[in-house]
Design brief:
NADH:ubiquinone reductase (non-electrogenic); flavoprotein; 5-stranded parallel β-sheet; peroxisome; 24% strand; single chain; membrane; 28 strands; NADP
Length: 492
């Protein structure tokens, strides 16, 4: 391996900057292909500005709900599309909790970007780059990027720049920890597929360790105590999935320790606070019946084997899942753009960053500026998806009017401003029960359903929302398999 690493060490230096390297030797055919397809001059390393006779280039930062919907709907006959993201897939987050306990397999909730927009792999001017954006230079229409590496023993990150005609910032948000000590070190978030994989690995590991002869009873209780912090939809859905797993699989296949495993859900206020009061009370009752212990409290400190609450009480745990909402990422905080209330990138009624030209921000990283008189929208998948669809339509209209290239939209009619209408909220609570709350807002009137009919609606709705027919097939088969033979409890 050391010989291979030495062989692959960067050996070609770009004329732009002696610190910028190509991760292959100058004689390699890969380098020849790169130099043939991408501009690398003395003034520029990466992708240079498009020419008037070329298709304008749209650079999208992120592969979440907002970015991928925009990529899906953009007209690739008039635009080249470049996606920059540290992951090459979109995660169908509403079903992510189900993968943690084996109800669904991980590939069922991950959709490759190249399947969402085939032009990325088929058209020479469109690409996906496994990288993070480190800075945006709106004056020169440039984004600075750095490749994602596989740990300290891999190749050094390769820095490069991309010129854009239109920039879509859809980089999402980070999990909120509220500055609580020990969260990043000891808790597992539930936002990515690798988070779900780690939760499943840890859960099954603790189950097997607790069955080892000689393990003290108190240690068994700690290993098998699963604590979820955050009573929003994600935390509640994971708690429901976990209780189902315990009642239907652990009790059958880990009979020796079935009486030790428990789930505790900790929330500072009310669980599912955005739902109708009647639905919230129903959720509390059902979760309690399923064996989930509900605790109202504020976490003060997180230690390797226990939580310290603000009242001084201690909560030992073997698995800690953190699901307390999201906040602006470090990347968003460092951008020199005006910010909306809460620290997101400030946008106008058309989802543009008004202080610069040709830059849009959508999804969890963006919020309306106070000057618009509009409230910052919640960090929901349906908000992000709707914004991505809107910007794609806007840019398609702009291109047809001749404003696709940089600095060319001043005299173009971009249409009506973005309007968001809430379609309602859904959450599953386990035991074939769910909540459906179809209202424009918490104080508005509307339809609210609970129980088995809501669970059927929840599954049907999300099955139709899964992007590809391939993944819909996977999800349907996984659900059927779980119903007939139980969940997969193999530790891989």
């Amino acid at each position: 391996m050391s010989f291979l690493r030495t062989l692959l060490k960067p050996s070609y230096t770009n004329n732009l900057n002696s610190k910028t390297h190509f991760p292959f030797s100058p004689s390699s055919s890969l380098l020849h292909t790169f130099l043939k397809n991408y501009s690398t001059s003395e003034k520029y390393g990466g992708l240079g500005p498009t020419k008037p006779e070329e298709k304008p280039r749209v650079v999208v930062l992120g592969s979440g709900w907002a970015g991928c919907r925009m990529i899906k709907d953009i007209d690739t006959k008039v635009y080249d599309i470049i996606c920059v993201s540290p992951r090459n897939h979109m995660v169908f987050t509403p079903l992510l909790a189900s993968t943690c306990v084996g109800t669904l397999e991980f590939r069922s909730v991950a959709e490759p970007i190249a399947r969402i927009q085939p032009a990325i792999s088929e058209q020479p001017g469109s690409s996906y780059f496994l990288a993070n954006c480190t800075n945006v230079d709106p004056k020169d229409h440039l984004v600075h990027c750095e490749t994602v590496t596989d740990g300290a023993k891999s190749l050094d990150p390769w820095k490069f720049k991309l010129s854009y005609d239109k920039l879509i910032i859809a980089s999402g948000a980070e999990a909120s920890t509220f500055g609580i000590n020990g969260v990043h070190e000891h808790a597992i978030f539930l936002r990515e597929v690798h988070h779900a994989q780690e939760i499943r690995r840890k859960l099954l590991l603790n189950l097997m360790l607790s069955d080892i002869p000689g393990i003290a009873e108190e240690e068994k209780k700690r290993l098998l105590h699963c604590v979820v912090v955050g009573g929003g939809p994600t935390g509640v859905e994971f708690s429901g999935e976990l209780s189902d797993f315990i009642l239907k699989d652990v009790h059958q296949r880990y009979a020796h320790v079935k009486d030790y495993i428990h789930v505790t859900l900790i929330e500072a206020n009310e669980i599912l606070s955005s739902f109708d009061d009647r639905l919230r009370h129903y959720a509390v009752n059902q979760l309690t019946k399923s064996g989930v212990r509900l605790v109202r409290g504020v976490v003060k400190d997180v230690q390797p084997d226990k939580l310290i609450l603000s009242d001084g009480s201690e909560v030992p745990y073997g698995l800690l899942v953190w699901s307390t909402g999201v906040g602006p990422s470090t990347f968003v905080k460092n951008l020199g753009f005006p910010k909306s209330p809460g620290g997101r990138i400030g946008i106008d009624d058309w989802l543009r960053v008004p202080s610069v030209e040709d830059v849009y921000a959508i999804g969890d990283c963006a919020g309306f500026l106070e000057s618009t008189g509009r409230q910052v929208l919640p960090a929901l998948a349906q908000v992000a998806e709707r914004q991505g669809k809107y910007v794609a339509r806007l840019l398609n209209r702009v291109a047809k009017a001749g404003g696709g290239h940089a600095n060319s939209t001043k005299d173009v009619d971009i249409g009506e401003p973005f309007v968001y209408r809430h379609l309602g909220s859904m959450a599953t609570i386990g035991s074939y029960k769910a909540l459906v709350d179809i209202r424009q807002s918490k104080d508005a009137k509307g339809l609210s359903l609970k129980g088995f009919p809501s669970w059927f609606i929840w599954r049907s709705a999300y099955l139709t929302r899964v992007i590809s027919w391939r993944n819909r097939f996977y999800v349907a088969i996984n659900w059927l398999t779980t119903l007939l033979v139980g969940r997969d409890i193999s530790r891989i």
